[in-house]
Design goal:
The chain contains 15 helices and 17 strands. By secondary structure, the protein is of the alpha+beta class. The chain folds into 3 domains: 126 residues, no CATH class; 76 residues, no CATH class; 108 residues, no CATH class.
Length: 382
Protein backbone atom coordinates (compact mmCIF):
# COMPACT_ATOMS: atom_id res chain seq x y z
CA UNK A 1 0.00 0.00 0.00
CA UNK A 2 1.40 3.36 -1.08
CA UNK A 3 0.92 6.31 1.23
CA UNK A 4 0.94 9.62 -0.69
CA UNK A 5 2.47 12.50 1.18
CA UNK A 6 2.24 16.10 0.01
CA UNK A 7 5.82 15.80 -1.27
CA UNK A 8 4.86 12.73 -3.39
CA UNK A 9 1.86 14.57 -4.76
CA UNK A 10 3.88 17.67 -5.66
CA UNK A 11 6.54 15.57 -7.36
CA UNK A 12 4.01 13.69 -9.48
CA UNK A 13 2.18 16.88 -10.38
CA UNK A 14 5.32 18.65 -11.58
CA UNK A 15 6.55 15.54 -13.39
CA UNK A 16 3.24 15.21 -15.22
CA UNK A 17 3.40 18.81 -16.43
CA UNK A 18 6.97 18.35 -17.63
CA UNK A 19 6.06 15.05 -19.33
CA UNK A 20 3.12 16.60 -21.12
CA UNK A 21 5.05 19.70 -22.27
CA UNK A 22 8.14 17.85 -23.43
CA UNK A 23 7.01 14.37 -24.35
CA UNK A 24 3.71 15.32 -25.88
CA UNK A 25 4.29 18.72 -27.41
CA UNK A 26 1.28 19.77 -29.42
CA UNK A 27 1.56 18.82 -33.07
CA UNK A 28 0.62 21.60 -35.48
CA UNK A 29 -0.97 20.43 -38.69
CA UNK A 30 -1.47 22.09 -42.04
CA UNK A 31 -5.24 22.87 -42.33
CA UNK A 32 -5.64 20.93 -45.58
CA UNK A 33 -3.89 17.96 -44.03
CA UNK A 34 -6.17 18.09 -40.98
CA UNK A 35 -9.27 18.06 -43.18
CA UNK A 36 -7.94 15.26 -45.36
CA UNK A 37 -8.00 17.52 -48.41
CA UNK A 38 -4.85 16.06 -49.94
CA UNK A 39 -6.18 16.94 -53.37
CA UNK A 40 -5.72 20.61 -52.58
CA UNK A 41 -2.01 20.12 -53.18
CA UNK A 42 -1.52 16.65 -54.72
CA UNK A 43 -2.62 15.39 -58.11
CA UNK A 44 -4.63 12.61 -56.53
CA UNK A 45 -7.53 13.31 -54.22
CA UNK A 46 -6.32 11.07 -51.41
CA UNK A 47 -2.65 11.90 -51.81
CA UNK A 48 -1.62 8.47 -53.10
CA UNK A 49 0.85 10.23 -55.39
CA UNK A 50 3.52 12.63 -54.17
CA UNK A 51 3.13 14.61 -57.38
CA UNK A 52 1.96 18.18 -56.82
CA UNK A 53 -0.77 19.95 -58.75
CA UNK A 54 1.64 22.78 -59.59
CA UNK A 55 5.21 23.87 -58.86
CA UNK A 56 6.17 25.65 -55.69
CA UNK A 57 6.00 28.43 -54.69
CA UNK A 58 2.94 28.92 -56.93
CA UNK A 59 1.22 26.06 -55.11
CA UNK A 60 1.77 27.75 -51.74
CA UNK A 61 0.74 31.12 -53.19
CA UNK A 62 -2.65 29.68 -54.12
CA UNK A 63 -3.46 30.07 -50.40
CA UNK A 64 -0.63 32.05 -48.85
CA UNK A 65 0.68 35.56 -49.49
CA UNK A 66 2.68 36.00 -52.68
CA UNK A 67 5.98 37.63 -51.67
CA UNK A 68 7.37 38.01 -55.19
CA UNK A 69 6.08 41.56 -55.41
CA UNK A 70 8.66 42.59 -52.80
CA UNK A 71 11.96 44.10 -53.87
CA UNK A 72 14.06 41.71 -51.78
CA UNK A 73 13.07 38.03 -51.58
CA UNK A 74 14.67 35.40 -49.35
CA UNK A 75 16.63 32.89 -51.45
CA UNK A 76 14.60 29.77 -50.54
CA UNK A 77 11.35 31.63 -51.29
CA UNK A 78 12.62 32.78 -54.66
CA UNK A 79 13.76 29.22 -55.43
CA UNK A 80 10.39 27.80 -54.43
CA UNK A 81 11.99 25.79 -51.61
CA UNK A 82 9.17 26.39 -49.12
CA UNK A 83 9.62 22.92 -47.63
CA UNK A 84 13.22 23.71 -46.74
CA UNK A 85 11.84 25.72 -43.82
CA UNK A 86 8.27 24.46 -43.45
CA UNK A 87 6.89 20.94 -43.18
CA UNK A 88 3.85 20.80 -45.52
CA UNK A 89 1.97 18.34 -43.33
CA UNK A 90 2.69 18.63 -39.61
CA UNK A 91 5.29 19.78 -37.12
CA UNK A 92 5.75 20.24 -33.40
CA UNK A 93 7.11 23.71 -34.12
CA UNK A 94 5.20 26.96 -34.71
CA UNK A 95 4.53 27.85 -38.36
CA UNK A 96 5.23 24.21 -39.25
CA UNK A 97 8.96 24.96 -39.08
CA UNK A 98 11.41 22.17 -39.76
CA UNK A 99 13.61 23.30 -36.82
CA UNK A 100 12.87 23.87 -33.16
CA UNK A 101 13.27 27.66 -33.37
CA UNK A 102 13.57 30.45 -35.91
CA UNK A 103 17.22 31.07 -35.03
CA UNK A 104 18.09 27.39 -35.29
CA UNK A 105 16.46 27.29 -38.71
CA UNK A 106 18.17 30.47 -39.97
CA UNK A 107 21.61 29.43 -38.77
CA UNK A 108 21.32 26.04 -40.50
CA UNK A 109 22.18 28.08 -43.63
CA UNK A 110 23.64 31.25 -42.14
CA UNK A 111 26.41 29.38 -40.32
CA UNK A 112 28.48 32.49 -39.57
CA UNK A 113 25.56 33.94 -37.64
CA UNK A 114 25.24 30.63 -35.82
CA UNK A 115 28.87 30.90 -34.71
CA UNK A 116 28.13 34.43 -33.53
CA UNK A 117 25.11 33.33 -31.50
CA UNK A 118 27.03 30.45 -29.93
CA UNK A 119 30.25 32.26 -29.09
CA UNK A 120 29.81 35.97 -29.79
CA UNK A 121 30.18 38.69 -27.20
CA UNK A 122 27.58 41.39 -26.54
CA UNK A 123 24.86 39.96 -28.76
CA UNK A 124 22.07 42.36 -29.70
CA UNK A 125 19.00 41.19 -27.69
CA UNK A 126 16.57 41.13 -30.67
CA UNK A 127 19.06 38.94 -32.53
CA UNK A 128 19.39 36.55 -29.62
CA UNK A 129 15.62 36.37 -29.31
CA UNK A 130 14.65 35.82 -32.95
CA UNK A 131 16.01 36.79 -36.36
CA UNK A 132 12.51 37.71 -37.50
CA UNK A 133 12.38 40.59 -35.03
CA UNK A 134 14.23 42.53 -37.73
CA UNK A 135 14.05 40.35 -40.86
CA UNK A 136 11.05 39.06 -42.73
CA UNK A 137 11.72 35.41 -43.54
CA UNK A 138 10.03 35.66 -46.93
CA UNK A 139 10.37 39.06 -48.57
CA UNK A 140 10.43 42.78 -47.92
CA UNK A 141 10.91 46.14 -49.58
CA UNK A 142 14.22 46.65 -47.81
CA UNK A 143 17.65 45.09 -48.25
CA UNK A 144 18.21 41.77 -46.42
CA UNK A 145 14.43 41.46 -46.03
CA UNK A 146 14.61 43.94 -43.16
CA UNK A 147 11.35 45.40 -41.88
CA UNK A 148 12.61 48.98 -42.29
CA UNK A 149 15.66 50.69 -43.74
CA UNK A 150 18.71 49.09 -42.13
CA UNK A 151 20.81 52.22 -41.69
CA UNK A 152 18.64 54.08 -39.19
CA UNK A 153 14.88 53.61 -39.41
CA UNK A 154 14.93 49.99 -38.23
CA UNK A 155 17.08 50.87 -35.21
CA UNK A 156 14.80 53.69 -34.16
CA UNK A 157 11.71 51.48 -34.11
CA UNK A 158 13.05 50.09 -30.81
CA UNK A 159 15.51 52.74 -29.65
CA UNK A 160 12.89 55.41 -29.14
CA UNK A 161 15.07 57.37 -26.69
CA UNK A 162 17.68 57.71 -29.43
CA UNK A 163 14.96 58.63 -31.93
CA UNK A 164 14.03 61.60 -29.75
CA UNK A 165 17.66 62.74 -29.53
CA UNK A 166 18.34 62.23 -33.23
CA UNK A 167 15.25 64.12 -34.33
CA UNK A 168 14.86 66.81 -31.67
CA UNK A 169 18.30 67.72 -30.33
CA UNK A 170 19.50 71.25 -31.00
CA UNK A 171 22.99 70.00 -31.89
CA UNK A 172 22.67 66.95 -34.11
CA UNK A 173 25.49 64.55 -34.92
CA UNK A 174 26.23 64.67 -38.63
CA UNK A 175 27.43 61.05 -38.68
CA UNK A 176 23.88 59.81 -38.07
CA UNK A 177 22.85 61.14 -41.47
CA UNK A 178 26.06 60.22 -43.33
CA UNK A 179 27.01 56.98 -45.08
CA UNK A 180 25.78 53.96 -43.16
CA UNK A 181 24.25 56.14 -40.43
CA UNK A 182 23.79 54.03 -37.25
CA UNK A 183 25.71 51.17 -38.84
CA UNK A 184 28.73 53.40 -39.33
CA UNK A 185 29.44 52.98 -35.62
CA UNK A 186 27.41 49.95 -34.48
CA UNK A 187 27.22 46.32 -35.54
CA UNK A 188 23.55 45.26 -35.53
CA UNK A 189 24.30 41.67 -34.52
CA UNK A 190 27.15 41.50 -32.01
CA UNK A 191 30.48 43.01 -31.07
CA UNK A 192 33.34 42.37 -28.63
CA UNK A 193 32.89 46.00 -27.56
CA UNK A 194 30.14 47.52 -25.45
CA UNK A 195 27.27 49.30 -27.19
CA UNK A 196 27.90 46.99 -30.18
CA UNK A 197 30.62 49.36 -31.40
CA UNK A 198 32.60 48.42 -34.49
CA UNK A 199 35.85 49.35 -32.76
CA UNK A 200 37.35 48.70 -29.34
CA UNK A 201 36.20 52.02 -27.87
CA UNK A 202 34.33 55.21 -28.71
CA UNK A 203 37.52 57.22 -29.33
CA UNK A 204 38.62 54.88 -32.12
CA UNK A 205 35.18 55.19 -33.69
CA UNK A 206 35.13 58.98 -33.35
CA UNK A 207 38.57 59.41 -34.89
CA UNK A 208 37.54 57.60 -38.07
CA UNK A 209 35.81 60.90 -38.94
CA UNK A 210 37.37 63.40 -36.55
CA UNK A 211 40.86 63.04 -37.98
CA UNK A 212 40.09 65.71 -40.54
CA UNK A 213 38.52 69.14 -40.35
CA UNK A 214 34.74 68.91 -40.35
CA UNK A 215 32.25 71.80 -40.64
CA UNK A 216 29.75 72.31 -37.86
CA UNK A 217 26.22 72.28 -39.21
CA UNK A 218 24.82 74.65 -36.60
CA UNK A 219 27.16 77.60 -37.19
CA UNK A 220 29.41 76.67 -40.10
CA UNK A 221 32.64 76.74 -38.05
CA UNK A 222 35.31 74.14 -38.70
CA UNK A 223 35.85 71.49 -36.07
CA UNK A 224 39.37 70.70 -34.94
CA UNK A 225 41.27 67.83 -36.54
CA UNK A 226 41.15 65.86 -33.30
CA UNK A 227 43.28 62.97 -34.53
CA UNK A 228 46.11 65.37 -35.36
CA UNK A 229 45.62 67.26 -32.09
CA UNK A 230 45.88 64.09 -29.99
CA UNK A 231 48.95 62.93 -31.91
CA UNK A 232 50.68 66.26 -31.27
CA UNK A 233 49.54 66.46 -27.64
CA UNK A 234 50.29 63.16 -25.87
CA UNK A 235 49.24 64.28 -22.35
CA UNK A 236 45.61 63.24 -22.67
CA UNK A 237 42.73 64.17 -20.38
CA UNK A 238 41.46 61.11 -18.49
CA UNK A 239 38.39 60.25 -20.64
CA UNK A 240 40.47 60.64 -23.82
CA UNK A 241 43.23 58.49 -22.36
CA UNK A 242 40.61 55.82 -21.54
CA UNK A 243 39.25 55.97 -25.09
CA UNK A 244 35.89 57.20 -23.87
CA UNK A 245 34.78 60.25 -25.85
CA UNK A 246 31.20 59.31 -24.93
CA UNK A 247 31.97 60.06 -21.28
CA UNK A 248 31.53 63.75 -22.14
CA UNK A 249 29.84 63.81 -25.56
CA UNK A 250 26.52 62.29 -26.56
CA UNK A 251 27.12 60.76 -30.00
CA UNK A 252 23.42 60.84 -30.88
CA UNK A 253 22.67 64.49 -30.18
CA UNK A 254 22.46 67.07 -27.42
CA UNK A 255 21.05 70.47 -26.57
CA UNK A 256 24.49 71.49 -25.24
CA UNK A 257 27.40 72.93 -27.17
CA UNK A 258 29.61 70.33 -28.92
CA UNK A 259 26.99 67.68 -28.14
CA UNK A 260 28.16 67.53 -24.53
CA UNK A 261 26.09 65.50 -22.08
CA UNK A 262 25.99 68.43 -19.67
CA UNK A 263 26.40 72.21 -20.10
CA UNK A 264 29.73 73.94 -20.60
CA UNK A 265 30.35 77.69 -21.15
CA UNK A 266 30.53 78.67 -24.80
CA UNK A 267 32.21 82.00 -24.05
CA UNK A 268 35.57 82.80 -22.49
CA UNK A 269 33.82 84.43 -19.55
CA UNK A 270 30.49 83.42 -18.03
CA UNK A 271 28.97 83.50 -14.57
CA UNK A 272 30.08 80.41 -12.67
CA UNK A 273 27.61 77.75 -11.56
CA UNK A 274 28.54 74.16 -10.74
CA UNK A 275 25.70 72.82 -12.89
CA UNK A 276 26.93 74.98 -15.79
CA UNK A 277 30.12 72.92 -16.13
CA UNK A 278 30.29 69.28 -17.22
CA UNK A 279 33.72 69.23 -15.56
CA UNK A 280 32.10 68.74 -12.16
CA UNK A 281 30.61 65.41 -13.15
CA UNK A 282 34.10 64.16 -12.24
CA UNK A 283 36.01 67.00 -10.58
CA UNK A 284 35.25 68.27 -7.08
CA UNK A 285 33.37 71.62 -7.27
CA UNK A 286 35.27 72.91 -4.23
CA UNK A 287 38.26 73.11 -6.55
CA UNK A 288 36.55 76.33 -7.63
CA UNK A 289 34.10 77.26 -4.91
CA UNK A 290 36.37 77.00 -1.83
CA UNK A 291 37.86 80.47 -1.35
CA UNK A 292 40.48 79.10 1.03
CA UNK A 293 41.72 75.52 0.92
CA UNK A 294 44.77 73.33 1.28
CA UNK A 295 42.97 70.25 -0.03
CA UNK A 296 41.02 70.75 -3.22
CA UNK A 297 43.54 72.45 -5.52
CA UNK A 298 47.27 72.95 -5.99
CA UNK A 299 46.64 76.26 -7.74
CA UNK A 300 46.78 78.38 -4.60
CA UNK A 301 48.90 80.96 -2.87
CA UNK A 302 49.23 79.54 0.62
CA UNK A 303 45.61 78.59 1.27
CA UNK A 304 44.17 81.24 -1.05
CA UNK A 305 42.45 79.43 -3.95
CA UNK A 306 43.48 81.09 -7.24
CA UNK A 307 40.87 79.04 -9.11
CA UNK A 308 38.25 80.79 -6.97
CA UNK A 309 39.72 84.16 -7.98
CA UNK A 310 39.79 83.42 -11.70
CA UNK A 311 36.69 81.28 -12.26
CA UNK A 312 34.28 82.22 -9.45
CA UNK A 313 35.14 85.91 -9.07
CA UNK A 314 36.35 86.97 -12.54
CA UNK A 315 34.14 84.45 -14.39
CA UNK A 316 36.97 83.15 -16.57
CA UNK A 317 36.01 79.81 -18.13
CA UNK A 318 38.10 76.68 -17.50
CA UNK A 319 38.71 76.36 -21.24
CA UNK A 320 40.57 79.67 -21.32
CA UNK A 321 43.56 78.10 -19.58
CA UNK A 322 43.03 74.33 -19.89
CA UNK A 323 42.74 72.04 -22.91
CA UNK A 324 40.05 69.50 -22.08
CA UNK A 325 41.32 66.98 -24.64
CA UNK A 326 45.11 66.92 -24.41
CA UNK A 327 48.23 69.06 -23.99
CA UNK A 328 51.97 68.73 -24.44
CA UNK A 329 54.37 71.29 -23.01
CA UNK A 330 52.64 72.35 -19.81
CA UNK A 331 51.32 70.37 -16.81
CA UNK A 332 47.68 70.16 -15.68
CA UNK A 333 46.52 70.22 -19.33
CA UNK A 334 47.35 73.92 -19.54
CA UNK A 335 47.38 75.51 -22.97
CA UNK A 336 50.53 77.10 -24.36
CA UNK A 337 48.39 79.60 -26.25
CA UNK A 338 44.81 80.58 -25.66
CA UNK A 339 42.13 83.07 -26.65
CA UNK A 340 40.00 85.36 -24.56
CA UNK A 341 37.35 87.13 -26.56
CA UNK A 342 39.09 88.37 -29.72
CA UNK A 343 42.60 88.24 -28.17
CA UNK A 344 45.04 85.39 -28.76
CA UNK A 345 48.07 85.12 -26.47
CA UNK A 346 50.48 82.87 -24.57
CA UNK A 347 49.98 81.98 -20.91
CA UNK A 348 53.74 82.00 -20.31
CA UNK A 349 53.28 79.58 -17.46
CA UNK A 350 56.31 78.33 -15.50
CA UNK A 351 56.01 75.68 -12.82
CA UNK A 352 58.08 75.52 -9.63
CA UNK A 353 58.22 72.69 -7.06
CA UNK A 354 55.69 74.43 -4.80
CA UNK A 355 53.93 76.82 -7.17
CA UNK A 356 54.60 78.72 -10.38
CA UNK A 357 54.02 81.90 -12.36
CA UNK A 358 52.18 83.08 -15.45
CA UNK A 359 52.40 86.21 -17.56
CA UNK A 360 49.46 86.44 -20.00
CA UNK A 361 48.12 89.69 -21.46
CA UNK A 362 45.59 89.84 -18.61
CA UNK A 363 48.14 91.01 -16.06
CA UNK A 364 51.88 91.35 -15.45
CA UNK A 365 53.82 88.34 -14.23
CA UNK A 366 52.30 86.85 -11.09
CA UNK A 367 53.76 84.23 -8.78
CA UNK A 368 52.10 81.84 -6.37
CA UNK A 369 53.49 79.45 -3.82
CA UNK A 370 51.61 76.87 -1.78
CA UNK A 371 54.21 76.71 0.99
CA UNK A 372 55.51 80.28 1.21
CA UNK A 373 52.76 82.63 -0.05
CA UNK A 374 53.70 85.51 -2.34
CA UNK A 375 52.47 89.13 -2.26
CA UNK A 376 50.86 89.44 -5.69
CA UNK A 377 51.61 93.18 -5.84
CA UNK A 378 55.32 92.99 -5.04
CA UNK A 379 55.92 89.34 -6.04
CA UNK A 380 57.84 88.86 -2.82
CA UNK A 381 57.32 86.19 -0.20
CA UNK A 382 55.03 87.27 2.59
Amino acid sequence: MIIFSFRNFLFLFLFSILFINIGYAKTIKHPSYVKGQCGACHTTKNGESADLKMEMPELCYSCHTNYEKNDFIHGPVGAGACTLCHNPHESKNPKLLTSNSVNELCTSCHANKGDMLNSGENIHPPVQDSCINCHDAHGEKHLYQLKADRKKDLCLTCHTDKKDKVENSINKHGAIEMGDKCLGCHDPHSSPSTKLLKAEDSKTICLTCHSSQLPRDEDGKMLMNMGEHLTNNPDAHGPVMWGDCAACHDPHGSDNTRMLKHPFPEKSAEKFTTDGYICFQCHEPKKITARFTKEFTEFRNGDKNIHFLHVKTKRISCKTCHDYHASKDLPHHLKSETTYGPAKFSLRFLESPTGGSCNPICHTIRYYDRVEPVNIKTNKKL
